[in-house]
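Entry 14. Two folds queued back to back today. First construct below, sequence then structure tokens.
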Amino acid sequence: MAETTSDKLSSAFMAEFLRNAGGTAIIDGGLATELERQGADLNDPLWSATCLLTSPHLIHKVHMDYLEAGADIIITASYQATIQGFESKGLSRDESESLLRKSVEIACSARDNYYDSCNTSIPDETPDGKIFKKRQILVAASVGSYGAYLADGSEYSGNYGDSITLEALKEFHRRRVKVLAESGADLIAFETIPNKLEAKAYAELLEEENMSIPAWFAFNSKDGIHVVSGDSYSECVSIAESCRNIVAVGINCTPPRFIHGLISSIKKVSTKPIVIYPNSGESYDADLKEWVQNTGVSDDDFVSYVNKWCEIGASLVGGCCRTTPDTIRAIYRTLSKR
């Protein structure tokens, strides 16, 4: 298939950004972890998105913390923010859409505030480790899976049942994705995609609605070979490869030990930049709804992986659940030495 002008624009967008970033860009880390550390109560089906209603200032602070740790991309607090989820709380359709836009507005405001700080801060890194380096920063609007909306852990199984069809998934996501695409974000991050069906729904939705915003697909895996549903990881990546809007493809919310093999799998079927932001490797107890202590890797170990991932082809790297600004700062420092 011949490459169209819009294809070239999409691929050029990410190529130019990565070139400006020195070849590798840094994504932020876990949001919910940090919101809880700031005192937020996330025991709610909306999870981190509940702070859009209760404490948007905390979201702003976490974005700032990641920017000051060296992140080049900050991801909005919209992972579990859905119109259906907000409406179940009694909000109107207009109020629900406004909250989606608000997630992007908070991130854009944090970026503006950070740039203001860069203009007045000398040197680039302060004694307490804060990075004030004027650079291109992207805001990625997060779209979580249908399973994330269900808040029953099914984004970690991809098992939605026979009643959830391709068309049903497209209709569930359609308005939400359109609102986020028109919200002022630089790209959309389709995150923790658990199965091939949902990836196909996203790809067809972007095409049907003729959206011009770039996006990435990030899948999750439990074994380093398949996505969590058991679908072939290579087949899922192939869907991203054929979608003109997708400017990067990779993996998130997956233990670090599986990433090396998954990068190799991506390279066999895709020419797009590879995006990698694993969790800390800790285990999550879905029944207790809490993380199992001492089951993850240290920041030092996490960063030692990052160098290897970049050497074999990762272009965008960061962290997911249970990673912190300290993790991202460590990535910034190690990549600065490359």
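Second construct, same run, same settings:
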Amino acid sequence: MNGNTGTAGVWRIAAINDAGGWKDRTTVEDMDLAVRASLRGWKFVYLGDLHVKSELPSTFQAFRFQQHRWSCGPANLFRKMVMEIVRNKRVKFWKKVYVIYSFFFVRKIIAHMVTFCFYCVVLPLTILVPEVKVPIWGAVYIPSVITILNSVGTPRSIHLLFYWILFENVMSLHRTKATLIGLLEAGRVNEWVVTEKLGNTLQKAADARKANTKAPRKFRFKFTERLNTLELGFAAFLFLCGCYDFVNGKNNYFIYLWLQTITFFITGIGFVGTIIPSS
């Protein structure tokens, strides 16, 4: 099974036609095609020695829109394809189980929800409800080992590991919301916002200078437009839980809660990576 995202991918026309062609029923049409082609028996060949240029979103707002699309789209695709996969007579039973359970359900849906619910809801609430206790091995040891193992592939970024954990917990809120929108086909399910890249903006400006025309104007976001109220609300919730633990707690969870509060607050005011070139 392949989660091809379309980046630097080269398709055979025969594979596209055999899989049913390009469809725009979700915002992850590349994944849609890849899943259907895989179910038809096509296999993907990876060229590890081929290097392709890519660029990360240049602003936090662009990153949020991108993550919404990448979380909402697969969940919506799962909703549309699950019965199609079940009824597929060309696919073996265990491959169906893998595609439905592992590829979609665990990796595209449950992973975000578990992270958000446990670290941002359940763990803080255990402080307010002392009768509920989470073993230290479940709250700290196992998640720490899993995170360290995931970071082995990027040793140059090991110094960012701790903040990456806090930031991923924040983004799990955004991804969980997007996943639920995709599953329920709610309001923003088909929202498509092109992920603006700083390189695109600079290239347009350079082309405009060469053509002796006025470069496209760049607008600054007002501070109020950058505010993310959901993240700010959770920052307040976690801060209060941290204060309660500091006064009455025994596990010193307030250290984590206050650090997580800071991360929620920073993302809540849209401060992370917000670099908007002025005109």
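Quick look at the second one. Confidence is low (pLDDT under 50) at residues 274-279. The first helix runs from residue 13 to 18.
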